[in-house]
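Lab notebook, bench 4. Still working through the backlog of constructs that have no structural model yet. Next entry is a single chain of 142 residues. Request: give me the structure tokens for it.
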Amino acid sequence: MLELASVGASDAVYDLGCGDGRIVIEAARRYGARGVCVDIDPRRIAEARANAAEAGVLDRISFRQEDLFQTDLRGATVVTLFLTYDMNLRLRPKLERELPAGARVVSHWHSMGNWQPLRTIHVQGPAREHEVFLFRTRAASP
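Model written out:
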């Protein structure tokens, strides 16, 4: 997901529904990016924080225990998603409204409805192949 989004040191990677934090931790560790882990479950935030500390990147990541639909996304340059198709569709208006033009959205497994991906790759999971989609936001309408 991070390679597909061409994440670099100047990026702010937001993982919505971060779970154990592995995506943001890898963005900080491998690419020097800053990151934001968002999860509604306090146990997952605690786990992500502990994993970031163990990886030595705690200073590059912030943690938000909140509903992803309430998270302010205006600072993101990359948003990673491993949600359901329905959640992706519900999230689209928020992404369109809050992300700057040119921000990248990467979704594992589920598309974003009629948004046309810039690129789609296929990765082999333990049981089957999954699609990963890369989208780029456009300028807001006047």
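Notes after review: The chain has one domain: 12-136. The first strand starts at residue 12 and ends at 16. Flag for follow-up if needed.
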